[in-house]
Amino acid sequence: MDNFYYASLPGIDQEEMIWLEELTKKFDPETRKKFLFLYQSRRKDPQTILLTCLVGLIGPNGIHRFLLDQILLGILFVVTFGFCLIGTIIDAVNYRKLTWEYNKQVSLEVAAMLSRTWTDR
C-alpha cells in the first residue's frame, strides 16, 4: 500500500498523509487495509466541518463541535449562540486545525486498536 490509498480520502492534505504513512509503516499490508477502512469510517472531512460551522452563522450553532465529539462545547455554542458568533467565526477560520486534531486522535485510537489485535496473534 502506498500514498495512493491515503490520497483517496476526501480533503486529505500532505501533512495528514505523511502522518498516516509514518503511523502505519510497521503494519503488514492486510493490517494497513484494515486501518484504512476503520480510519476512513471514523475520519471527519474538513469541508463538512467548515460547512457545518458556516451554518452556525445563519442558524444553529455548534453542529461542528458535536461532529467533532466535543459535546460540552457544542452545548455551550448552542446556549451562547456560538459565543455571540465570535467563536463560530474563529472556528470557521481554524476548521482545518480542528479537523486535523480530531482525525489525528482517531488515527491513534485505530492504530492502537489494531496493534493490540496484531500483537495478540
From TrEMBL:
Residue stretches making up the TM2 domain: 49-93
InterPro entries: TM2
Coiled-coil segments: none
Keyword set, alphabetical order: Membrane, Transmembrane, Transmembrane helix
TM annotation in the entry: 73-95
Pfam families: TM2
Compartment(s) of residence: Membrane
Membrane topology value: Multi-pass membrane protein
Record-given protein name: TM2 domain-containing protein
Lineage of the species this protein comes from: Bacteria, Pseudomonadati, Bacteroidota, Chitinophagia, Chitinophagales
